[in-house]
Amino acid sequence: MTTLSVRADRALLSGNEAIARGAWEAGVHVAAAYPGTPSTETLQALAGYDEVDSRWATNEKVAVDVALGASLGGARAFAAMKHVGLNVAADTFMTASYVGVGGGLVIMVADDPGMHSSQNEQDTRLYARLGLVPLLEPSDSAEAKDYTKLAFDVSEEFDTPVLLRSTTRISHNRGIVPLETRREVAVRGFRRDPAKYVMLPAYARGRHPVILERLERLAGYAGDLAAEEGTDGRVGIVTAGVPYQYVKEVAPDLRILKLGMTYPIPIERIRRFAETVDRLVVVEELEPFLEEALLAAGLDVVGKAFFPRTGELSPDLVRDGLAALGVADPRPPVPDAPTTVTRPPLMCPGCPHMVPYWSIKRLGATVTGDIGCYTLAALEPLATMDTCISMGASIGMASGMAASGGSDEPVVATIGDSTFLHGGVPALMEAVYNDANMTVVILDNGTTAMTGGQEHPGTGTTLAGEKARAVDIPALCRAVGVEDLHVVDPYDVSATLRAIEQAMAYRGTSVVITHRPCVEAPLRVKDRPFEVVPDNCTACQLCMNLGCPAIVWTDEVFEGRRKVTIDAAMCTGCTLCAQLCPPRAIVPVEVQA
Ligand SMILES: Cc1ncc(C[n+]2csc(CCOP(=O)(O)OP(=O)(O)O)c2C)c(N)n1
Q1: Cα 386 vs. chain centroid, distance in angstroms?
Q2: Residue 253: helix, strand or coil by DSSP?
Q3: Is the CB of 372 within 6 Å of ligand 1?
Q4: pLDDT tens, 478-501?
């Protein structure tokens, strides 16, 4: 675990590490997750505790299935994911609410306001309302640990899964966390109860009123957990999570009602608080979740008229809102910040994803893309991705695109190995089953690179670092009926180009697997770097089409075009640019004897 110890009884922990610590202290037995920023480190930190069976699941639904199964087995269970992961897990999540728990069941979901590394900024509190499940929102690392422990107790006391909502700021900021020991909780064992665990309509109908009654009791609990502070009642702020910290920073004396559980909303508790202040104001990130509920309850309240609904809040934005409400000083003018050079995100030097996209671009295709490092191929110079929506969507969308007949070019889906196993396999079955005329390029770099290189069922190693049976991806493709299958090394430019060309010419669903470890893989051997022999460079610039950041422009010009050079410190010696260089001006750096 990456913790910096301050004293033996406290530690400086990120929110994610604190949540892991809280789960451990609460006696969690089984934990499952699929990686996704900003939640990933939670399971990685939990894996450092021997008492917990921590594992990567194939996707978030499987993670919640595993956790729910463990819970019904009577163990304390935990699942973690980023906000969009709950979309994948939503089917189980929604009915887990009806079923309740055996051992405590906590589902941690990390939202990403501002979309630092996400494709949308949905607000998980709305899922709590949809699923009728309580949701706790910590506002710093210490509370992240405490609320995780509380969540297990609430789960067992009220017989419900509990959502623990973090956001990027909570998950990634560090704070001092008091450490306690683990409370060993006995596994209760599975108690057969079909009317509670088998959600046939007849049984489920009986459960719905139970859930609603549970919510009423939970609203009382949420009211008791809420805390009042401050003396200046010109406005009374209702807030939770990281926005609470911003309000405290900007206007420490204002009356605040800080909620710990934001669903169910403790309306009566807020109503009592409203009576003690001149004007009720909600400060919340993303959706007007609390505000709308308070308006519906007949309270006179403002919120999104003063604080933005999109992006992250910040102390400055909270100050702007409070200043407009007349209870804080406006921001002092700031001198113009020095301008910084903006740099687009780039693939790594030697990235094995470069040549598959370079090949597809050369051949011409409509490309449905997916989510992973390779999404960078949407940008120049590769610029070879026409859609990117959600994990695993590329293959189904290619099938639909082919069915539409609307593309003048062949249709190609591109997808990474982790994403393929997460959500691509059912879609490949659909494509083969319905004889979609399309090609799938599986970019197999043997890791989940985008989120920091996690293992997955195709890598042959578990989260605990133990050897596992690895999914044989070519065999899996054959098993679902793929007949035109090519496996190539994407460091072989001509073989990759040829394989993709042949696959695109095939009538039906073809698959190309480009197989080469990620350049960031721990076992990477950096080969001799390459250099450009200036006199031989004809400035054709073909190597630049790879988008490799190790290839850079020089000031030297040939026939009106700039020549290139290679940054030896960045070059991995992958040979790709040398393979593309017509005058063979790119050669390995001579080793000095
Ligand atoms: C539903 C969902 N879960 C998790 C993520 C976070 N995430 C984005 S891409 C990705 C996997 C990338 O791995 P892979 O497909 O192997 O491509 P690579 O980055 O290795 O090239 C993950 C876990 C997400 N965006 N959506």
Answers
A1: 22
A2: coil
A3: yes
A4: 999 999 999 999 999 999 999 999
562 vs 1: CA distance, rounded Å: 49
The angle subtended at Cα 428 by Cα 422 and Cα 433, nearest 5°, is 145
Give me the CATH number covering residue 320: 3.40.50.920
Question: What average pLDDT does the segment 335-345 reach?
Answer: 79
Residues 506 and 564 in one domain: no
Buried b (16+ CB within 10 A) or exposed e, 164-181: bbbbbbbbbbbbebebee
> Mutation test of ligand 1: which of 419, 421, 514 has the most ligand atoms closer than 8 Å to its C-beta?
419
42 inside domain = yes
pLDDT, tens digit, for every residue of 458-469? 999 999 999 999
Ligand 1 atom closest to residue 453's alpha carbon, by position in its atom list: 20
Closest atom, ligand 1, to C-alpha of 444: 16
Query: Residue with the nearest Cα to atom 1 of ligand 1?
Result: 85
554: domain CATH number is: 3.30.70
Per-residue confidence (pLDDT) for residue 497, from 0 to 100: 98
Would residue 236 count as lying in a domain? Answer: yes
Identify the pLDDT of residue 2.
47
Query: 10 Å Cβ neighbour count for 133?
Result: 26
- 84-119 per-position pLDDT tens digit: 999 999 999 999 999 999 999 999 999 999 999 999
* Start-end of H helices in 405-482: 417-419, 425-433, 473-479
Same domain for 304 and 275:
yes
Q: Does the CB atom of residue 259 touch ligand 1 within 6 A?
A: no
Q: Kindly report the CATH number assigned to the domain that includes residue 113.
A: 3.40.50.970
| In a domain? residue 365 | yes
Picking from 406, 341, 347, the residue whose alpha carbon sits closest to that of residue 372 is 347
DSSP per-residue codes, 289-305: HHHHHHHHTT--EE-TT
Which atom of ligand 1 is least distant from the CA of 87? 1
Q: Look at the block and give the residue holding tokens 């009566």.
A: 268
Pairing verdict, β 530-532 and 586-588:
antiparallel
Q: Residue 34: CB within 6 Å of ligand 1?
A: yes
The Cα 357–Cα 226 span in angstroms is 53
Domain that holds residue 385: 354-515
Range ranked top by mean pLDDT from 4-13, 19-28, 330-339: 19-28
| Burial of 4: CB neighbours in 10 Å, binned 0-12, 13-18, 19+ | exposed
What is the Cα gyration radius of the chain? 27
Is residue 419 within 6 Å of ligand 1 at its C-beta? yes
546 lines ligand 1 (CB under 6 A): no
Asked if 106 and 164 touch (Cβ cutoff 8 Å), the reply is: yes
Looking at residue 527, its pLDDT comes to 77
Q: Is 545 in the pocket of ligand 1 (CB under 6 A)?
A: no
Q: State the distance from the centre of ligand 1 to the C-alpha of 450, rounded, in angstroms.
A: 6
- Tokens representing residue 21 in the block: 């610590």
d(CA 250, CA 320): 10
Model confidence band, residue 592 (pLDDT cutoffs 50, 70, 90): low
Is 394 close to ligand 1, i.e. is its CB under 6 Å away? no
Distance in Å, CA 236 to ligand 1 centroid: 42
Task: Tell me the CA–centroid distance for residue 45 and ligand 1, in Å.
Answer: 19
User: What are the φ/ψ torsions at residue 412 (nearest 5 degrees)?
Assistant: -125, 130
